[in-house]
Amino acid sequence: MKIGEQLESILEGDVSMDSKVLAEHSRDASLFRVAPRVVVFPRSSSDVQQVVRFVNRNKKAHSRLSITARSAGTDMSGGPLNDSIILSFTKYMNKLKMHKKTATVEPGLYHRDFEKQVYPRNLFMPSYPASKDLAAFGGLINNNSGGELTLRYGKTNRYVKKLKVVCADGNEYVFAPLHKKEREAKCRKNDFEGALYRKTYGLIQKHYDAICAARPNVSKNSAGYALWDVYDKKKDIFDLTQLIVGAQGTLGMVVEADIKLVPIPKHRRLAVLFLKEWDRIPEIVNALLPQDPESMEVFDDETLKLALRFFPEIASRTENQNIVKMAFQFMPEFLIGVRMMRLPKLVILVEIAEHTKKEAEKKLSALEEEMTAMKVIHRSFRTEEEAEKYWTIRRESFALLRKHVGNKRTAPFIDDIIVRPDVLPVVLPKVLSVLKQYSIKATLAGHAGDGNFHIIPLMNLEDPRERAKIPIVSEKVYDIVLQYGGSITAEHNDGLIRSPYLQKMYGKDMYKIFQEVKHIFDPKGIFNPRKKMSAGMEYAKTHIDHI
């Protein structure tokens, strides 16, 4: 009996080996294509538990049998791709329960459906990514997503209060922050859960100083396992949710999460800064951070050219969808271009968001005074309608690229580097020089306030010579980023594309600690292979989608 047929006999959910379904689940938003053997659409945690137990029973006879979780498939790293069993959550496990200031979500819940329920209550989860209209909570949690508001609010791990996780023994456990007595009680349990707590706590205690020292000196990081966030020694709080969030489903299957919600500031103002060169970024960031902006986004002249080239499409993606009106709204920017005698090299969007109009105006005025004193060309907007054109360019640039690159395609492989903002004027020119050396064109956008940039190369991946550049350029770019104390991924996580570089980033000793974590949670290696641990660039190279 085939594996799919065996699974059908024990599950309430759907099981598919249809070629169309397998093809749909063989891609995400990354470079890769990996065809699964079977796709399971679980109806409940019970189904997920059954699949894990099935794999455990059959792993010895079928060594390549494994499970990978998938929600919306918007991952840019290849995280939800696998050649074995895919658990696809959006079809059935997409429930939402609202509470006063929290929400209980399943991994298949689309963020856009979540928004419809929480926004009318003037609440939100602010760690959403740019792909929020397409993304689902499984990816937000497993990648520890961040986005335009992370500068003020932090990443998803800050908002996950409790998790239900199906672990490698096939049982569901609840993970939440534990005080000393609660942790000690867990450690005394004579079962798989007890072993998780004893071994993980012991591992962190043994290597506590090394773990703390390994944390990158940047404001956000999704590379490896976030062991440094698990145990707060001062408060004596032990929290395994901080390990599961961002683990890309390599330690267990998240089936439910309690999410903290925060009030939405009602009064927004936007300042748009136009820069001729990179070198003023640190000065501007340092000047504006005291105003506590909600976000500080940036895009480059290549992104702006793309938006101008496909202007009607950009206009159609705005809420007013009025091309003529939007064209007139851009007239002042045209005059700024004339004044600068070229397109700006960089456009920085600084958004002020406060709960009172008075405070929003006060901060915007202070920002305007600061930029005028620094002789930075800028414009200010006091309505969301006026500001929308810029946010559309920033948020839709990747989608536009994927659609309009001719025989080339977007090739996200150095798409999420982060360094401290003060070293950006040194790091970015060096990175762009590497791209130029290998004749790779790219667009650049990102989060200026925390030094996180999304560089999206455009490449003809049908050409094997182009594909061969990917590991070479990755090595060179990561050498630069790590030389300046950065991280290879701030938000997008490791997946197939960056997992091979984790040892390079953290060193052999820390990598061994990560391996121990993986073995504690997943001793048979059944969860999302080749992500985080046991990753090789050869597998990644052979699965680049070049057809």
Automatic annotation (TrEMBL):
Protein name: FAD-binding oxidoreductase
GO biological process: lactate catabolic process
Molecular functions (GO terms): D-lactate dehydrogenase (cytochrome) activity; D-lactate dehydrogenase (NAD+) activity; FAD binding
Occurrences of domain FAD-binding PCMH-type (ranges): 32-264
Cofactor: FAD
Organism: Candidatus Spechtbacteria bacterium SB0662_bin_43
Keywords, sorted A to Z: Coiled coil, FAD, Flavoprotein, Oxidoreductase
Coiled coil: 350-377
Gene3D superfamilies per the UniProt record, alphabetical: 3.30.465.10, 3.30.70.2740, Uridine Diphospho-n-acetylenolpyruvylglucosamine Reductase, domain 2, Vanillyl-alcohol Oxidase, Chain A, domain 4
InterPro entries: FAD-bd_oxidored_4_C (IPR004113), FAD-bd_PCMH (IPR016166), FAD-bd_PCMH-like_sf (IPR036318), FAD-bd_PCMH_sub1 (IPR016167), FAD-bd_PCMH_sub2 (IPR016169), FAD-linked_Oxase-like_C (IPR016164), Oxid_FAD_bind_N (IPR006094), Vanillyl_alc_oxidase_C-sub2 (IPR016171)
